[in-house]
Design brief:
Helix content: 25-40%
Largest sheet: 4 strands, mixed
Radius of gyration: 30 Å
Number of strands: 8
Number of helices: 4
Length: about 170
């Protein structure tokens, strides 16, 4: 029974195509080089499966083990790795060029808490009407934010204009 071409994972039992293999038994002991048929008979003799561990070796390395248990362990490892991985989100904070001091402090505290959680912060400075003529004020606000956040962050994207708003992205150090 040949293996299906889109099968993922190592070859098992009759799917192993090599004529000769290097066998590791169920106790982890190296048994040496033998024919794949002999190795398969040994595996069936102890009621376990023959699994191709290293297909690119010369000859390929195979091991006698319980394939169901092996698949279960692999799935468990994969789930464990998935749990530990941190998804980085981008939090957005919107400010205006003529922001009041208290509002500025509130926004700054919010940005610091986002950074402490390990998230990126996208600072969006929106211009309305005649404020477009005074982009230097917007640049000053973003520079002040960058200076106040300098210890905990680094700038991933420098301030740049996108239509009627200026955008800057900060990341945790």
């Amino acid at each position: 029974m040949p293996a299906s071409p889109n099968r993922d994972g190592p070859r098992v039992n009759e799917e192993i195509r090599a004529a000769e293999v290097r066998l590791i038994d169920e106790d982890g002991e190296m048994q040496g080089v033998m024919t794949a048929r002999d190795a398969l008979l040994r595996a069936y003799g102890v009621g376990l499966d023959l699994l191709e561990i290293s297909p690119n070796a010369e000859p390929p390395v195979v091991k006698i083990l319980d394939f169901g248990k092996f698949k279960y362990e692999q799935q468990k490892k994969k789930n464990e790795a998935k749990k530990k991985q941190k998804v980085i989100e981008i939090k957005e904070v919107k400010v205006r060029p003529n922001i009041d001091e208290n509002d500025y402090q509130v926004k700054l505290r919010a940005m610091k808490s986002f950074i402490e959680e390990g998230d990126k912060v996208k600072v969006t400075l929106r211009f309305r009407g005649r404020e477009m003529a005074h982009q230097d004020l917007g640049i000053k606000v973003l520079e002040r934010i960058r200076a106040d956040m300098d210890l905990a962050t680094k700038v991933e994207q420098m301030p740049k204009m996108e239509n009627r708003q200026m955008v800057m992205v900060l990341t945790p150090r």
